[in-house]
Amino acid sequence: HIIISRSPMLLARTRSSLLAQRPLSATAMRSLSTLLVGEHDGEKLTEGTLSAITAAKAFGPIEVLIGGPGSKAAADSACAVDGVGSVSYVDSDTLAHGVAEEWTPVILAAQKAGGHSHIVAASSAFSKSTLPRVAALLDVAQLSDVTEVKDASTFVRPMYAGNAMATVESTDAVKVITMRPTSFEKAATSGGGGAAPPPAG
């Protein structure tokens, strides 16, 4: 294994059902949770985000965080996605264009509020610009373009310009990960429940 080890708003929430990808002990479920930074088209989550949700089911309860114009409608839709435990959204024009400097404090605030062990997003231009900043401010390593989840700390990802696949173990307290969408099935868009409330603030 390659061991990676480094030293250590406006949010509205709603509840829906939770379905874990694999069995976890009660202790593990209490200590693991995911902040899933989602992307949407103003009405629903993108296909890449649905794939990232499937990958994140191994990490306990999933809170989906979305932002920008249309996020209220997308939040309503996200509540129904299988595996989603809660949805937070920030309906603000400042988040419309996926600017890393605008998104980073929102993500950090949500992670702190939820005490999440994992921050996950689909691999995209947005996540590639934003999550490295999040990881740097948390003083942890980022794992990019993960293609397989072995367990909550062990992942498979490409290395050497994609010429090799490596199994990587992270010992960071908070794991910041982008998932390759084509490596995971898209989460079903039904199976959850609940409606998103108006944004706080």
Automatic annotation (TrEMBL):
GO cellular component, one term: mitochondrial matrix
SMART domains: ETF
Domain called Electron transfer flavoprotein alpha/beta-subunit N-terminal: residue spans: 34-199
GO biological process, one term: fatty acid beta-oxidation using acyl-CoA dehydrogenase
InterPro entries noted in UniProt: ETF_a/b_N, ETF_a/FixB, ETF_alpha_N, Rossmann-like_a/b/a_fold
Subcellular location: Mitochondrion matrix
GO terms of molecular function: electron transfer activity; flavin adenine dinucleotide binding
PANTHER family assigned to the protein according to its UniProt record, in alphabetical order: ELECTRON TRANSFER FLAVOPROTEIN ALPHA, ELECTRON TRANSFER FLAVOPROTEIN SUBUNIT ALPHA, MITOCHONDRIAL
Family membership: Belongs to the ETF alpha-subunit/FixB family.
Protein name: Electron transfer flavoprotein alpha/beta-subunit N-terminal domain-containing protein
Taxon lineage: Eukaryota, Haptista, Haptophyta, Prymnesiophyceae, Prymnesiales
